[in-house]
Specification:
The structure is a homodimer of 350-residue chains. The first copy, chain A, folds into two domains: 1-154 and 295-350, Isopropylmalate Dehydrogenase, CATH 3.40.718.10; 158-285, Isopropylmalate Dehydrogenase (3-Layer(aba) Sandwich). Chain A has eleven helices and twelve strands. The first copy, chain A, has helices at residues 23-34, 48-57, 98-117, 131-136, 144-151, 177-180, 186-204, 229-241, 253-261, 273-283, 319-349; strands at 11-15, 41-47, 63-66, 78-85, 123-126, 158-162, 167-170, 210-214, 246-251, 267-270, 289-293, 298-301. Chain A has a twelve-stranded mixed sheet with strand order 3-4-2-1-5-12-11-6-7-10-8-9, with helices on both faces. In chain A, helix 1 packs across helix 2 (48-57), helix 1 (23-34) crosses helix 11 (319-349) and helix 7 (186-204) crosses helix 8. At the A-B interface, helix 6, helix 9 and helix 10 of A face helix 6, helix 9 and helix 10 of B.
């Protein structure tokens, strides 16, 4: 069965993020930029009044439309919103009550997870929320990624940061640096390599991904002179190589990202947050996208925070949100293509 | 007293590095590139036969000239060598006996240190040696930097890596990552900031250096959520600020190097090797120079190792050596200018 043209546009839920932050602004700016090349059938989970006011304040040629659950094709300049909160449309971000906005920010994510888990959307794109703000109103929330993993019963997942020239996947994320060494474990490294490999195949159409694994210590330990975690990393690399994956390392981290940028590798598996984020943000300061791999659905996110200090001032840069939406749409299209291919192959084999 | 023209050219000792490595090749290639714009009065400390053979093999229009100690002005295409060893000029790098070459590599550095400590040269530029090879012949040698510090009675020194767009100074260097956290100490951080500040003033003519200090943990610890070393860093930054230095931090490392690259800071003080080296090598893969600050003389170095595997194959890239010589010459000229200025000011004040 071939897909009908209208089915090819992936359905994507986009959360508005913290109403007091720059989420509403970057979502609308991204819509404005993408309106001439509608890449998906979007549904914003957020607040109708806030989005309407923000679109007016930004003087954007967009029509914010309140919709019930479900997807329809709108005019390109429309922003279909499932309104899950009712704030006053007259208040500036800083005047929105903190408790209500934190609860609302969580409600948008909760709804997005539900739509994705039940297959009503192929992808979720998230605008920033504050973990701290949501936790303070009594909701247990360690971050989008962890919440979406739990909501979908996913145990092993990977945070990947992606730009055109560099993709990094993290073995550990938000931890004190002193705890990293103890978490360099072969099981986890193998799992990150395999999920990264699968992600590159499913979503980026790289048939045989070339994955580099960074060492932990200076000069990748220089044969044990500056640390021995590289033995564990080597073991993991060997184990995964034996399954036929094109994986190499541990490589000295200081020269590795230059090599990846030059096209030698499709992705770099990094041992800790800043090892991956320093080179990623140096190359892709504005347009990096945060991807969660390993979930049963696609999830991308902006690569910045709520930025309360500039909210409502028309100063937020929407490039990361625009890239996150475009990438989610591309990933959904590629995944559908590869699944379609598999189905066709299976049918032929019968 | 104004300097005579001939005095303005700084005298620089250039060590040839390990005879079995790529040192002789990069030194000669750098001379060939710099011959039309002689920036200093150079003296190579090395092996006359090896340099003569290498210049022939590389087909370089250079004349290797054996000299006694002391500096003279030669024709631009001359390479004046104080020959401290006598290897056969017929052997390829791999055939040079290991023990003799390791001892010779050390002798070049020892002589360079002596010339610098006694004021006969203003700067030392070093080609790569192998710490391991030198140690194996029974000479206690933890690296050029440590050796030169000891030889000059220097206790506090700083490894800086410099390119046109980014300069990083390291609080810790070649250590297992797991040991870094324990060495994030206020005293040392203050000292690195102050030496960096002085170095930028003396050698780069930055009157009021703007120095950024990186945090250790992801998001600079996010207010203690992911680690507390940032409290120590803050304390050091405050202490040095009170002395009137333009220093700020601790900043989240992932976005800091982009900001530095954009011109917001003159240098970044980094807590560990890869925090500084990853962004430095991403921006300056070929032309970064390693500088030791805090010594009573100028010392620069290439930013790469002996590369035994490609020695004698005309495959080595000499851009780092060329940059190291040029930078040492610039630094010496600037230091002399600023000292001259100080002397003039003092004379006027009398």
């Amino acid at each position: 069965m071939a897909f009908q043209k209208k089915d090819l546009q992936p359905k994507i839920a986009i959360t508005m993020g913290d109403p007091r932050g720059i989420g509403p602004e970057v979502v609308l700016k991204a819509f404005a930029r993408l309106s001439h090349q509608r890449v998906c059938v979007p549904l914003v989970l957020g607040d109708f009044n806030i989005l309407t006011r923000t679109a007016q304040a930004l003087n954007l040629k967009l029509k914010v439309v309140e919709v019930a659950e479900g997807f329809r094709n709108f005019q390109p300049e429309s922003v279909p919103v499932l309104s899950l909160s009712r704030f006053s449309g007259k208040k500036s971000p800083a005047d929105i009550p903190f408790q209500e906005s934190s609860r609302a920010a969580f409600a948008y994510v909760e709804k997005a997870a539900h739509l994705a888990v039940t297959g009503k959307v192929q992808a979720i794109v998230t605008a920033p929320v504050s973990k701290e703000a949501i936790s303070r109103v009594g909701i247990s929330f360690r971050g989008h990624t962890e919440y979406l993993a739990e909501a979908s019963g996913t145990e092993e997942f990977v945070m990947m940061l992606a730009g055109q020239r560099l993709k990094v996947a993290l073995v550990t994320t938000h931890l004190p640096l002193r705890e990293v060494s103890g978490l360099v474990q072969a099981e986890r490294i193998c799992s990150v390599i395999e999920i990264t490999n699968q992600g590159l195949q499913d979503y980026f159409e790289v048939n045989h991904p070339r994955i580099a694994v960074a060492g932990l210590n200076p000069h990748a330990g220089e044969n044990g002179l500056f640390g021995e975690e590289e033995l564990i990393i080597s073991q993991a690399v060997r184990r995964v190589s034996q399954k036929g994956l094109f994986v190499s390392g541990p490589w000295p981290a200081d020269t590795l990202f230059y090599r990846a940028k030059q096209g030698e590798f499709d992705a770099v598996v990094c041992m800790y947050h800043d090892q991956g984020l320093i080179p990623l943000k140096l190359l892709h300061f504005e347009d990096a996208v945060n991807i969660t791999l390993g979930l049963p659905f696609i999830r991308t996110s902006v690569d910045h925070g709520v930025a309360y200090d500039i909210a409502g001032k028309n100063r937020a840069n929407a490039r990361s949100m625009q890239a996150a939406i475009q990438l989610a749409a591309q990933m959904a299209t590629k995944k559908r293509k590869s699944q379609n291919l598999k189905t066709n192959n299976q049918n032929e084999e019968k």
